[in-house]
Amino acid sequence: MNYRQLGNTDLTISELSFGTWAIGGSWGKSDDQEALRGLERAMDAGVNFFDTADVYGDGHSEELLAKATKGKEDKIHIATKFCRKGDIFDPATYSEKTVTEYCEASLKRLQRDTIDLYQIHCAPFDVLKNGQVFEVLDKLQQQGKIRHYGVSVETVEEGLFCLDQSNVKALQVIFNIFRQKAIPELLPQAKEKGVGLLARVPLASGLLTGKFSKQATFEADDHRHFNKDGEAFNVGETFAGVEFAKGVELSQQLHWISEGRGNMARAALRWILDHEEITTVIPGFKTVKQVEDNLQAIEVPSFSEGDLKKVSDFYQTEIHPNIRGVY
């Protein structure tokens, strides 16, 4: 495993880490024992960072992480998120009282004294611009409840704004071959300001595995069914904002990236890791096999300059015009 420093913090984390939305809920059926085995397999391979949120399975993924990391709290770093348990548009959701309650509830589920990275979970831009929530997080940090804090954002504009907040140490952004808007401005500015970057939705909700046909269907409790057009939350969180059938078509045209890299998923993760500004990429998983396959992304060949240009050109001409929503 290779490790990268999270911005200018004291955390050095595995460049390939894992998100835990899928094992918590909203990705169809999952098996807790298989999830725990997957977490164990990841840690055995040197993964020392996991991302979660209090709404993933209503806290279930935090509880699974507590079981998996028991006795390893000083070695395994956990990032969790808050605010989406309440009304994200209500200022009271970001009050000192409410955020403290969210934080303490996460700490209890995680069975930890301190959260390594506490992140605002895709709050509206107006909330971020108000600034109150950052003052609350400063207090939680002073109290020792959180070690560092960051923001999970939906848009490049939000990310650029957060880079100007002095104590924001990490940004979590949608970044993958289907979502490259962050490259020209956000990535270099984050590096310059010493802010770590967590790349989420790295496989575009599975599109970049190349395994789907246009006829694929998803279970009713899978966000790839109930949020396919942004009905439940930001459309960009599902298939990176691309309409499913079109996304399948585009992913088929990208199959060449797998040549010499085993498969499309490993290649897509490698593409992200080839951007040095990214601290870690956080694919999800539900099975040990998925963990093992994703781990191999760190072993496959990097993209050449020519390949990077080919991917960039394809994004500009074919993908970018098909992304829906504000990003």
The CATH architecture: Alpha-Beta Barrel
| Percentage of residues in strands | 5-15%
Work out the oligomeric state of the chains in this entry: single chain
Biggest β-sheet description: 8 strands, parallel
Helix-strand pattern, N to C?
EEEHHEHEHEHHEHEHEHHHEHH
The structure class reads alpha/beta
CATH topology: TIM Barrel
- Helix run count: 13
Poorly predicted regions: none
The whole-number mean of residue pLDDT values reads: 96
> CATH superfamily membership, which one?
NADP-dependent oxidoreductase domain
Name of the level-1 CATH class: Alpha Beta
How far apart are the first and last residues' alpha carbons, in Å? 32 Å
How many domains?
1
Overall radius of gyration: 18 Å
Major sheet: arrangement of strands: 3-4-5-6-7-8-9-10
Domain NADP-dependent oxidoreductase: 15-313
Pfam family, one: Aldo_ket_red
GO molecular function: oxidoreductase activity
Protein name: Aldo/keto reductase
Structural summary, described in words:
This is Aldo/keto reductase. Residues 15-313 form the NADP-dependent oxidoreductase domain. GO terms for molecular function: oxidoreductase activity. InterPro entries: AKR, AKR2_Oxidoreductase, NAD(P)_OxRdtase_dom_sf, NADP_OxRdtase_dom. This protein has 13 helices and ten strands. The protein has a single domain, classed as NADP-dependent oxidoreductase domain (TIM Barrel). The model has no long low-confidence stretch (mean pLDDT 96). Helix 2 packs across helix 3 (60-68) and helix 2 (32-44) packs parallel to helix 12. The strands form two sheets. An eight-stranded parallel β-sheet has the order 3-4-5-6-7-8-9-10, with helices on one face. A two-stranded antiparallel ribbon has the order 1-2. Helices cover 37% and strands 14% of the residues. With 327 residues, the chain is of the alpha/beta class.
